[in-house]
Amino acid sequence: MIDTAYREYVGSPHVHSVYSDGSGSYRTIAAAANAAQLNFVIVTDHNVRPQGLEGYVGQTLMLSGEEVHNVRRDPQANHLLVYGAEHEMAPYSFGSTQTLIRAARERDGICYIAHPIERPSAIGTDLAAIPWTQWPPEGIHGLEIWNYMSEFKGLLWNKLVALVYAYRPEWGIRGPYRATLKLWDELLASGHKIAALGGADAHATSYRWGPFRRRVFPYEYLFRAVNTHILTKAPLTGDPVEDKALIYDALRAGRTWVGYDLPHSTRGFRCFARSGSAMAGPGEELRRLGAINLSVTLPTDGEIILRRDGKVIRRTTGTSMKYTSVEAGIYRVEAYRRFRGRKVAWIFASPIYAS
Ligand SMILES: [Zn+2]
Ligand SMILES: [Zn+2]
């Protein structure tokens, strides 16, 4: 049941710091997040969860999650984002992925599969694809359907192209891979509840190509691009412990959407379904009492696509959509808009499960 007490907050849930292979300290990352007006950042360093660094810096709550994977595996695969386990999960990375997920869940961890499908870059062996290979995973909360730096890596098919996109990434970035969205719908069809996560995978690494030196990309730039918007059950209070619980509760329940905030902020997007006196939003279940009335509102013009069980059932252009149906199913909303002369992906909401 969604009610008007829900509040929207915006964050970046996949970020690397100097504790692994990122270039920035927590302080640097927090300053960038403040500039981009993010409400929260979850730093997810590779196989390490530093202690004692959580808390508010300005308006941004800095949290420590972890990106866990078996470093001995070659080639690399199966990166798992874990939030809220409050334990170092790296020791569990050497068994099966299912063992890791189970260990995280036993510690109340929230598990999202990072970059489930990746394309390699042709320009370097250190830019190989790192997909998820163990399907279907039991016990995950969701998929990182859109990973900005992962998509960027897949664009780099030669050094000249890499140089162009290093300066003009918005010419290349288009949206989640079709294969990832298909995979998401297949998992949903097989009975898994799967929420959508969008991450920057920010490292802010500097590269040199001959005379060119470029940070790809600064944290602040990435924090204005692909973010995860969440709906919390109460307003954030400024207390780091209470607010962390509210944020993790939303990620656990899957009350999320992925927003590409660069073309236009996706703050204010709303999507819900009513049936009789029942009401549900992204990530929630709706028990039908007769017809279902779906309502979608965009913060500005775009193309809205409504899917039921993976199939497009309505497509419209504008700032809103209404749709009535009597059918049970898994309803989810996507939105697209024009940016720099091209159509780009903009919003992907977690499903509403109507039974
Ligand atoms: Zn990764
Ligand atoms: Zn990462």
How do you describe this structure in short?
By secondary structure, this protein is of the alpha+beta class. Helices cover 19% and strands 37% of the residues. The radius of gyration is 19 Å and the shape is globular.
Question: What descriptive keywords fit this protein?
Answer:
355 residues, alpha+beta, TIM Barrel, 14-stranded mixed sheet, 5-stranded mixed sheet, binds zinc ion
How large, in whole angstroms, is the Cα Rg?
19 Å
Q: Beta-strand level of the residues, as a percent range? A: 35-45%
Weakly predicted, low-confidence segments: none
CATH superfamily of the largest domain: Metal-dependent hydrolases
Please write the CATH class name of the largest domain: Alpha Beta
Number of helices: 7
The CATH architecture classification of the largest domain is Alpha-Beta Barrel
Give the class from helix and strand content and strand pairing.
alpha+beta
Number of strands: 21
Mean pLDDT: 96
Present as ligands are: zinc ion
- How many domains in all? 2
Please summarize the sheet with the most strands.
Answer: 14 strands, mixed
How far apart are the first and last residues' alpha carbons, in Å? 14 Å
Helix content: 10-25%
